[in-house]
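Technical appendix A lists one of the benchmark inputs used to test multi-chain prediction within the project. The record comprises two sequence entries:
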Amino acid sequence: MLRFIIRRVVIIIPMLLIIVSITWGLIRLAPGNFYTQEKKLAPALEQNLRDKYGLDKPWYVQYRKVLWNMARFDFGNSLKYEGQSVNQILFRALPVSATLGLCAYLFALAVGITTGTLAALRQNSWIDYASMALAMLGISIPNFVLGPLLALLFALTLFWLPPALWDGFPSRSIVLPSLTLSALYIAYIARLTRSGMLEVLRSDYIRTARAKGLSESQVVFRHALRGGLLPVVSFSGPALAFLITGTVVVERVFALPGLGNYFINACFNRDEPLIIGIVAFIAVAVLVFNLLVDISYGLIDPRIRY
Amino acid sequence: MTRARKRNVLKDNQPPATPHDPPDLHIGHEYAFAVKDVREVITGEVIAGTSLWRDAWRRLLKNKLAVLGMIIVIVIVIAALIGPAIIKGATGYSYDFIPKDQALTKSFPPFRGPGGEFSGTHPMGTDNAGRDIFARVLSGGQISLMVALIATLVSLVIGVSYGATAGYLGGQIDDLMMRVVDVLYSLPYVIIVIVLLALLPAKTPTGQLAQLFLALGAVSWLTMARIVRGQVMSLKNQEFILAARATGVSTPKIIFRHLVPNTLGPVIVYATLTVPTVMLSEAFLSFLGLGVRPPRVSWGSLAADGAQNLAIYPWQLIFPGITMALMLFSLNFLGDGLRDALDPQMRKD
């Protein structure tokens, strides 16, 4: 197990290098620059800018500087948001996205696992069909359609919730974004739980538990759930990747100051340090998270040994 | 699996006198070519053949939801293909037709004309510039469907080649290739795609579309590669591959001429399930302004335009959104039904 963990930790660094290099390469390949967006600059001003940011130096010099900065966790200052360093922006935007993602995923776990288990326990009943149909709906409605529709209904018609606001964790403003983001995951988790539980509930050890006289809730909670949740745990890894792309849209729709919104704006503004900073951060977060998920997978299922 | 129709083919093929005597076989030379199956000769029944595909089709038709999904998909596809032309011919509206009359360049609700009276000219209303939303939704459907199909094809080509090669070569090469797939699977490289599309926009509209096909195909080939690899690994030890190797068929030919055609079942199933995923990705990119750009429309860009005016003109978002959701819903049901129909057959293989 330890060798597995060490191997996975060690591989993070080359992965990060590759991703950052590809991103930086794309930014450098792009025609135009961050200062050509709005109006033509006088040649002297342009020369000043190029000297300041070292844009005239050969590409390998700039590349080395980027890598060296990354090793010191110093991504520089943002080119568009004057005077703010990338680290500052990251520290400000991260809690927003993290809270949003966590709320959405926990909510999706709660609702999805419950629904999936119920559907598995009462297979082919109306609960089963209704929840699987709703799950299919959740997969089919895109979050950029669901989000505005929910905002239209709850915020602009009923006035129960704010349409585009961020107030921190325990407030009404996280309800709509979390709900929008979680819809897709409720659907996937419900389907995965249902199929996992169906398989587990047929196995011999569950039959033994029932034969021993355990109540249904004991059978489910203490024995079946552990095995039936394995697909959900292994789904959590790629789910984080989807979640990040989901937060990009949701933050755009609800105008939240999170990483996704900053990332898209940085892409449109050609804000190179910010793009590299966010991409590096997301890459590391995803790789570490996947490692944690794989470790927990080995802990939950004793049959899996690395 | 076989449907036997009892009919006496050979009139002089009488049943044996006692159960233990073999039947009297009088195969006249005029029947020698008509007998298709040795079972026909012995028992006198005609057995009509049926293939695995026909079985799967029958199983699919029994699944009512999948049939409904298939019908809706076909309806929407036909509407998207011929709708814009019909609408343009009948009323002159198209996805970029802006009326000359200044009073008409506003957003009208469905079935209402200027002045608020009932009028059937715009069943889904108009957008801010007076363009008919129904025509825009159908044109957007054209582009969304085309992008989804071609990107799925791209991901199919990449995934099948990669997976079949990895599965057949085996050993360390396979290990390395699958390691790459595992790592790519867990990365959000939609982020890199976003960076790519934002920073390197192609100049011409066709160039933009080509870029989109490649980008979307590159995002969704991973699971296809895994599935094909699994299939190939179970096929490669069979005798026909041994025979091919023994006769000196080269490795690429073995992979592409022999192994790949036999993996067709799961490939079809997964391709049908990839199409809605790719459609969703394209819509998501167009919503952000990175995918299909004006003057072309796609469902995602229509949703983006509609979301901006949501509070005042909600129909601009509702109609493209509902159409898209309906299409994805039906495609998902169809894909699930296909998987259930083809899967039992695959397990028998």
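The two ends of chain A are 5 Å apart (CA to CA). Chain A touches chain B through 46 residues (CB under 8 Å). Comparable benchmark entries are summarised in Table A2.
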